[in-house]
């Protein structure tokens, strides 16, 4: 008698809602959601309820990207594809976005290394991952909570190698942008093998040493504290202006995606997630940050380069872990305004992601 589907390793990959050819040649992608997996018996309702209790989210949605040649090598068996992968790259978006704001980077990752699978989830409160509450707690909206939700999801899908694995383990690389790039700073290394994970933070909104910008987020994210009218104004007037004027020279696709998310996200979530970036106490200590890279942009209007560099120095990051490139907050988004610069930046981000993966594998082999 076979085991129930929810007990079978990699069964979740058969719960895709749809598949499609990617615009990057040789890559395909598909959409998933925890609720869909539960409906199809690939997760139990208890597992979904436990996720909801732990994170405050009603659901979690994501897109998976893979190389078509790798799938062909696995004889078209999606479970075998996952089993044979060298690692997963998880792309974590920022405030008011979704997994779609990464545009081509997840697919480019799989095209460059067919032994990698990229995952781009919608995160805490946005897109296909809404909160249960109309007004979530500030703690549920913090970068630390975002990281904890992602780790919970990683364990639900059993992405990590079995403890029986010898030497070479699957590498999990967390790539964040904006508020999503602040989350990897709160990754808890305990229980993970030294070179089993890597982190790349692109333009992190980590405002520990930047009181002026923290105040900016606190004022905009007034939350429910000042009643319904300010929240309505935040959604209908202020947040579109933030997208239009502060995120920089993004592509039209990213601009439209942000505006779409703002229209469909609850007012309480918009306010609380913005507010959380300015008020959550940040308890980070200087230590050794293994397999971690930071990429900043010189013209980023949402974070200050100088305060961020000072913070990274205080946290004991080495100079070879940090680089500043020409560009703005969406330094990897190839738009008409900064096409040449941002195209090069996208190559830099991709190169760092691939390098971190190979670095972890090389160190595991020692």
CATH topology: Rossmann fold
Q: What's the helix-strand series?
A: EEHHEHHEHEHEHEHHHHEHEH
What is the β-strand count?
Answer: 9
**Which CATH architecture is right?**
3-Layer(aba) Sandwich
- SS class: alpha/beta
Percent in helix: 40-55%
Give the strand line-up of the largest sheet: 1-2-3-5-4-6-7-8-9
Largest sheet: 9 strands, mixed
What is the overall pLDDT average? 87
Number of domains: 1
Distance between the termini: 42 Å
How big is the Rg? 20 Å
Overall morphology: globular
- Strand fraction band? 5-15%
Low-confidence stretches: 221-228
The helix count comes to: 13
CATH superfamily: Alpha/Beta hydrolase fold, catalytic domain
* CATH class call: Alpha Beta
**Oligomeric state of the chains present here:** single chain
Commentary on this structure:
With 366 residues, this protein is an alpha/beta fold. The chain has one domain: Alpha/Beta hydrolase fold, catalytic domain (Rossmann fold), CATH 3.40.50.1820. The chain is 40% helix and 14% strand. The chain contains 13 helices and nine strands. The protein has helices at residues 34-39, 45-55, 68-73, 78-84, 105-112, 143-156, 179-182, 211-220, 228-245, 252-264, 267-279, 305-314, 339-365; strands at 18-21, 27-33, 61-67, 87-92, 116-121, 171-177, 197-202, 292-297, 322-325. Helix 7 (179-182) links the parallel strand 6 (171-177) and strand 7. Helix 5 crosses helix 13, helix 8 runs antiparallel to helix 11 and helix 9 packs antiparallel against helix 10 (252-264). The protein is globular, with a radius of gyration of 20 Å. Mean pLDDT is 87; it is low at 221-228.
């Amino acid at each position: 008698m076979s085991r129930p589907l929810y007990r079978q390793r990699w069964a979740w990959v058969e719960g895709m809602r749809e598949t499609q050819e990617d615009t990057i040649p040789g890559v395909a992608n598909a959409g998933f959601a925890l609720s869909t997996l539960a409906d199809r018996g690939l997760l139990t309702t208890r597992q979904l309820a436990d996720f909801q209790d732990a994170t405050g989210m009603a659901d979690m949605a994501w897109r998976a990207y893979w190389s078509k040649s790798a799938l062909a090598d696995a004889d078209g068996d999606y479970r075998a594809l996952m089993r044979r992968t060298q690692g997963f790259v998880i792309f974590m978006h920022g405030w008011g976005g979704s997994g779609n704001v990464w545009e081509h980077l997840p697919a480019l990752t799989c095209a460059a290394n067919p032994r990698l699978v990229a995952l781009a989830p919608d995160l805490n409160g946005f897109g296909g991952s809404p909160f249960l509450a109309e007004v979530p707690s500030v703690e549920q909206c913090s970068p630390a909570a975002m990281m904890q939700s992602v780790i919970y999801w990683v364990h639900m899908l059993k992405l990590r190698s079995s403890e029986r694995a010898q030497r070479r383990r699957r590498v999990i690389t967390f790539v964040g942008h904006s508020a999503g790039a602040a989350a990897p700073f709160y990754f808890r290394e305990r229980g993970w093998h030294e070179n089993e994970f890597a982190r790349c933070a692109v333009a992190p909104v980590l405002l520990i040493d930047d009181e002026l910008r923290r105040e900016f987020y606190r004022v905009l994210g007034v939350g429910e504290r000042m009643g319904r009218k300010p929240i309505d104004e935040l959604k209908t007037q202020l947040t579109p202006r933030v997208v239009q004027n502060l995120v920089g020279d993004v592509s039209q696709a990213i601009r439209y995606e942000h505006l779409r998310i703002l229209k469909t996200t609850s007012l309480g979530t918009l306010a609380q997630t913005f507010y959380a970036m300015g008020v959550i106490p940040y308890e980070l200590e200087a230590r050794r940050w293994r397999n971690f890279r930071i990429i900043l942009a010189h013209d980023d209007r949402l974070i200050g380069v100088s305060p961020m560099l000072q913070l990274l120095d205080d946290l004991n990051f080495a100079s070879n872990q940090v680089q500043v490139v020409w560009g703005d907050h969406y330094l990897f988004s190839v738009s008409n305004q900064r096409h040449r610069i941002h195209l090069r930046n996208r190559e830099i981000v991709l190169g760092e992601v691939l390098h971190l993966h190979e670095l972890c594998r090389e160190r595991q082999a020692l």
